[in-house]
Automatic annotation (TrEMBL), chain A:
Species, as recorded: Klenkia brasiliensis
Stated name of the protein: Branched-chain amino acid transport system permease protein
Keyword Transmembrane helix on entry: yes
One Pfam family cited in the UniProt record for this chain: BPD_transp_2
PANTHER family per record: BRANCHED-CHAIN AMINO ACID TRANSPORT PERMEASE PROTEIN LIVM-RELATED (PTHR30482:SF1), HIGH-AFFINITY BRANCHED-CHAIN AMINO ACID TRANSPORT SYSTEM PERMEASE (PTHR30482)
GO MF terms held by the record: branched-chain amino acid transmembrane transporter activity
Topological type in the membrane: Multi-pass membrane protein
GO cellular component terms listed in the entry, alphabetical order: plasma membrane
Keywords from the UniProt entry: Cell membrane, Membrane, Transmembrane, Transmembrane helix
Coiled coil: none
TM spans (from-to): 12-32, 39-60, 66-86, 157-178, 210-228, 240-258, 298-315
Origin: domain of life: Bacteria
UniProtKB/TrEMBL annotation, chain B:
BP GO annotations: D-alanine transmembrane transport; L-alanine transport; L-isoleucine import across plasma membrane
Signal peptide from the UniProt entry: 1-37
Gene3D superfamilies for this protein: Carboxypeptidase-like, regulatory domain
Bilayer disposition of the protein: Multi-pass membrane protein
Official protein name in the record: Branched-chain amino acid transport system permease protein
Residues that span the membrane, as ranges: 150-169, 176-194, 200-221, 233-258, 278-300, 329-350, 362-392, 404-424
Keywords: Amino-acid transport, Cell inner membrane, Cell membrane, Membrane, Signal, Transmembrane, Transmembrane helix, Transport
GO cellular component entries: plasma membrane
GO terms of molecular function: carbohydrate binding; L-isoleucine transmembrane transporter activity; L-leucine transmembrane transporter activity; L-phenylalanine transmembrane transporter activity; L-valine transmembrane transporter activity
Length: 332, 431
């Protein structure tokens, strides 16, 4: 019983911690791409990696101030979005999907390669770039605080607080934009691109603007993650994270302002809860070791996400909040 | 079509999910990986690609105080495995460099290695012997060597990717779970070959049958019911990503995170053909791939089912109205794609060893090849894959080895700018 309570509490902490913020920001970006504009971006993690490494490289390699690093990360993500959009936004949706996933994987391989080691420190990555940010916390970052039965260090609390403020501002921005004329054009592009073109709108430009906006959200997510873990390692930015963010978005409901946020909190809670609870059951001998060993638990989480993603798409594509009519997309 | 999908489709779908779950449970009960927990040792293999395994070289291990622990000669596989009765610690391993065969020289780090052995670990030691096959010998010869290697790699991609392209052509599905068909083929063959003791060729044939079965299961249990429900192509794409995650990590749980070789054809000496060298297994890979691909092309061109496949890929409604059973054709495409992917997986495992994510890592290059040739065309996949394979290998002439896949992915993006429909694709497909 105490195992169950422990697992629940650890799950709650994970659902509110920096990882949930990371996935929420990734998913808000994907929501702008996929939910509102109908762009299939499967390389969102690349923008996050540029955000995280933007800070890491600027601060620990070039010795620049933290906030310059933030600007560098955002600028890098914008440039990548423009580079990706130029060739692919005129093509069919699945081409963008293939190109973005290829870019994300290619960039990760590049960042972890031996030849990039002088800049990114290869597979080991960079660390020690977040002190000046943590030092801004108005409370002592060394002591641990207990909130609702969960234990947080002062630094974790500070990152989570700032992160959730960023998420709230991002949601506010998306809400305001999507009820503006600009947002209505995006939704119209998702529904029928040719009709929008017939009205004299430059579809290509609108798609590009949406791609850049979502990329910036992704970069902010990567920054929160890098600051939260205190390190930037290329292999943290695996493509599976993009798919997890998609799962969070679809779980919460695509084309809804709060869908990605709620989806991320629930997804992180379920993943962490399942992880802790399964480990507890295995160490207690409730689940025999021959069936499942504790080293397999990390993989079980991805298996669950895979099954969940399939079931959601098949039986409830609109997620918790979504409108079914808005998410019955087709590749034109 | 959509109106009468109703309850039957849903029940069939639920049933097939149940079957899939049961299959996953049985798979989880299989023994996982190989466990080898003995005492500490240092081990390694002395070989180069031209000389093959080097037997009879004296390998000496001394501990940190300089006293000799043991001294052995490498066996006929070039291997040495020296137990360390004193347990973990720092050891120096040295080889007798005077007795190396002609043409084989020590690497830049010399004949001695100092290693730190952890508790319970069999510490691998690599001496990095050189035989002049890389680096020296002039860049023209190296280019030819890379061309041949690239041809082999491209043909493997092609064998894997034909199914991917035909499935896209006949159903419109961008199948992100195709890489897992490759992995499943390689791993089924590994279990039959290494744990079952069956010769690799027979194991490969069995794995191809299993691959065809998995392909058929894909179509019957998942994609056909989804098509009947009228699921959109984007939703189907995301479903295939879910399936890919599910299968990939289930495979890692069953098989483990290690890379293992097949039991046969491993320590082969590279044969010198003048301007390039090739092991016999690489030569066999090229021959098998070419023969299989020619057979596939003949089938598409000459047989009734092959013509039907091309007809469905070209225009599904027209094919249906001229009396072709479209669902049957799609099922055959899935089975063929699964069998070919399994064969490609074994061929890949033969050169790069068997790993749980080998198919996923190949998937992007398959997409690159298929897009280059023209999405949905069978011959396009062949041409595009070979070009991608050669390009990836040849690019190591100018870029470092560990970034060679980046070059292939960059090529994909460049193609999309210049000729989005691919080499053999038609303009209408890109939308």
């Amino acid at each position: 019983m105490s195992d169950l309570v422990d697992a629940l509490l650890i799950g709650v902490k994970s659902g509110l911690g920096f990882q949930a913020i990371f996935f929420a920001l990734l998913a808000i970006g994907i929501n702008v791409h996929f939910g509102y504009t109908g762009l299939l971006n499967f390389g969102q993690i690349a923008f996050a990696m540029l955000g995280g490494f933007g800070i890491a490289i600027s601060v620990s390699q070039w010795g620049l101030p933290f906030w310059v690093g933030v600007l560098v990360g955002i600028a890098a993500a914008v440039v990548l979005a423009l580079l990706l959009g130029l060739p692919t936004l005129r093509l069919r949706a699945d081409y963008l999907a293939i190109v973005t996933i290829a870019t994300a994987e290619g960039l990760r391989l590049l960042f972890r390669s031996v030849s990039a080691t002088p800049v990114t420190n290869g597979t080991r990555g960079l660390s020690a770039f977040n002190q000046s940010f943590i030092a801004l916390a108005p409370w002592d970052t060394q002591t641990r605080y207990r909130i609702l039965g969960t234990s947080w260090s002062g630094g974790e609390l500070w990152v989570a607080l700032v992160g959730w403020v960023i998420v709230a501002l991002a949601c506010l921005l998306v809400w305001a934009l999507m009820r503006s004329p600009w947002g209505r054009v995006l939704k119209a592009i998702r529904e029928d691109e040719d009709a929008v073109r017939a009205l004299g709108k430059n579809v290509y430009n609108y798609k590009m603007q949406a791609l850049v906006l979502g990329a910036v959200f992704g970069a902010l997510g990567g920054m929160v993650y890098a600051v939260g873990t205190g390190s930037a390692i290329p292999d943290q930015y695996q493509n599976a994270n993009t798919f997890l963010a998609y799962a969070a978005l679809i779980l919460g409901g695509a084309a809804r302002v709060l869908g990605p946020v709620v989806g991320s909190i629930i997804l992180l809670f379920i993943l962490q809860f399942a992880d802790t609870f399964l480990r507890a059951l295995i160490s207690n001998g409730v689940i025999p070791d021959a069936l499942l060993s504790s080293t397999d638990v990390a993989q079980i989480r991805f298996v669950l996400v895979g099954i969940g993603l399939m079931l959601l798409l098949v039986f409830r594509p609109q997620g918790i909040f979504g409108d079914r009519r808005e998410v019955m997309l087709d590749a034109r | 079509m959509r109106a009468r999908s109703g309850g039957r489709g849903r029940r069939a779908f639920a049933l097939s999910l149940l079957v899939a779950t049961l299959a996953a449970v049985f798979a989880a009960l299989l023994p996982a990986g190989i466990a080898s927990a003995e005492g500490e040792s240092v081990r390694g293999t002395l070989q180069t690609s031209r000389s093959g395994p080097i037997a009879g070289i004296t390998v000496t291990v001394t501990d940190s105080s300089g006293s000799e622990v043991d001294s052995v000669e490498t066996d006929d596989q070039g291997r040495f495995d020296i137990p360390l009765p004193a347990g973990a610690g720092q050891y120096t391993v040295s080889i007798d460099s005077d007795s190396l065969p002609d043409g084989v020289t020590l690497g830049p780090q010399g004949a001695e290695r100092t290693v730190t052995v952890d508790n319970g670990r069999q510490q691998p030691v690599n001496f990095g012997l050189q035989d002049g096959s890389t680096g020296s010998g002039g860049s023209t010869i190296r280019a030819v060597q890379l061309l041949v290697d690239g041809l082999r790699f491209g043909l493997i991609i092609a064998v894997c990717a034909v199914g991917l392209s035909l499935i896209f052509g006949t159903t419109g599905l961008t199948n992100f779970a195709h890489g897992e068909l490759v992995t499943i083929g390689a791993i089924v063959a590994w279990y039959i070959n290494v744990q079952g003791g069956v010769p690799l060729i027979a194991a490969t044939l069995i794995a191809m049958v299993v691959g065809a079965g998995v392909g058929a299961l894909n179509e019957l249990a998942l994609w056909r019911p989804l098509r009947r429900r009228g699921t959109g192509l984007v939703a189907a794409l995301v479903v295939s990503i879910g399936l890919s995650l599910l299968l990939r990590y289930a495979i890692q749980i069953v098989y483990g995170g290690f890379s293992n070789p097949y039991a046969e054809y491993q320590s082969q000496r590279a044969v010198n053909y003048g301007v390039f060298t090739l092991t016999n297994r690489a030569l066999a890979t090229i021959v098998i791939a070419v023969v299989v691909l020619v057979l596939v092309a003949l089938m598409l061109q000459r047989t009734k089912i092959g013509k039907a496949m091309r007809a469905v890929a070209d225009n599904r409604d027209l094919a249906a109205s001229s009396g072709i059973d479209v669902n049957r054709v799609i099922l055959v495409v899935w089975m063929m794609g699964g069998a070919l992917a399994a064969l490609g997986g074994v061929l890949l495992g033969l050169s790069d060893q068997v790993q749980w994510d080998m198919g996923f890592r190949l998937l992007l290059l398959m997409f690159a090849g298929v897009t280059l040739g023209g999405l949905g065309t069978a011959y396009g996949a062949l041409v595009g894959s070979v070009i991608i394979g050669v390009f990836v290998q040849m690019s190591t002439l100018v870029i470092p080895d560990d970034t060679k896949y980046v070059g292939g992915l960059l090529l994909l993006i460049v193609i999309l700018v210049i000729r989005p429909q691919g080499i053999l694709g038609s303009r209408a497909r890109i939308g």
